[in-house]
Every structure is written in structure tokens, then in C-alpha cells.
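Good morning,

Attaching, inline, the C-alpha cells for the sequence recovery test we're adding to the shared suite. The designed sequence is right after.
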């Protein structure tokens, strides 16, 4: 009788424990990187939303002030306050109060907020140049404003400076 080698019938296709550990490790790294990128994207999106909110509020505030200032006269300024007479002959006051820009069109009796409640105005300054009669300078007002907006735990700061010239020269 001839002996034939016995075929190993116990060999089954499968993974060894080392192969399984390596596969789980690679899978975990890919999932970890994906979650990290997703969290970073959400954080960045919140920061962009906060910055856009601040930008929109500041842009609206400065533009509305500029429209009135261009046709105004008789300017006077304090620390965070600007008063003048607009084209309709109304006494207008812009001021910083309780972290918001406020406007009064009745000489200071009633004020309404110009900026939205979702932002905080850190500072507001008005610098007058050429507003005195006979000084030979073109009347202009420089406005500096700084604001902070918050969305979730992300905040955004914006600082803006602009100079507005009066349309009417002082005589």
C-alpha cells in the first residue's frame, strides 16, 4: 500500500489577528481624520457666519450715517457722539450707548438702535476736520468703529474706518 500525503483540509480562508488589528487601526485613523475635518468645517462656518453678521451690521450702520452726514451741517463731536443738522433741518445725534450705535432725530429726546442686537460695538469715534467756518479745509468726518459678533462659541471682530466728506463747503 502506498502512502499518499494527506491533504490539509483544515485550511480555511480568513484573517489572522494581526491583519485584523491593522485593518481596524487604519479604519480608525480614517474615521478620526474625517471627524476632525468635519468639526473644523463646522467651526469655520460658525466663524464666517459671525464675521458676516458683524460686517453686514457695520456696513449698514456706516452707510446710513454717511447718507445723512453728506448733506448735514453744523457738526459737533464728543467722545463717542456726533451731532449735526440734517438736510431736513432736524437735529440728529449718533452715539454709542450700551454697546450699540443709537440715533436720535429729535435732538436727543428719543433714541433708537441702528445696529442689531447680535453684535457688540466695542468703540465708536468721530473725528471732525474742516468743520469750522473760514478754516479753508473741506469739511469731513472720520468714523472709526469696532464690533464683535458671536455665533455659538465662535466670535469675530471687525474694525472699520471711513472718512465722509460733506457736500456743502463751509463759508
Amino acid at each position: 500500500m502506498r502512502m499518499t500525503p494527506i491533504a490539509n483540509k483544515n485550511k480555511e480562508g480568513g484573517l489572522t489577528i494581526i491583519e485584523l488589528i491593522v485593518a481596524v487601526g487604519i479604519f480608525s485613523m480614517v474615521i478620526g481624520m474625517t471627524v476632525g475635518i468635519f468639526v473644523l468645517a463646522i467651526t469655520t462656518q460658525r466663524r464666517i457666519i459671525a464675521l458676516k453678521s458683524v460686517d453686514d451690521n457695520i456696513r449698514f450702520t456706516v452707510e446710513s450715517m454717511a447718507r445723512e452726514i453728506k448733506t448735514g451741517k453744523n457738526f459737533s463731536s464728543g467722545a463717542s457722539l456726533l451731532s449735526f443738522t440734517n438736510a431736513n433741518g432736524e437735529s440728529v445725534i449718533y452715539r454709542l450707548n450700551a454697546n450699540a450705535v443709537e440715533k436720535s432725530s429729535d435732538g436727543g429726546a428719543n433714541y433708537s438702535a441702528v445696529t442689531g442686537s447680535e453684535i457688540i460695538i466695542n468703540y465708536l469715534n468721530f473725528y471732525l476736520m474742516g468743520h469750522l467756518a473760514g478754516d479753508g479745509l473741506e469739511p469731513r468726518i472720520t468714523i472709526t468703529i469696532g464690533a464683535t459678533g458671536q455665533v455659538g462659541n465662535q466670535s469675530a471682530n471687525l474694525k472699520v474706518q471711513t472718512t465722509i466728506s460733506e457736500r456743502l463747503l463751509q463759508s
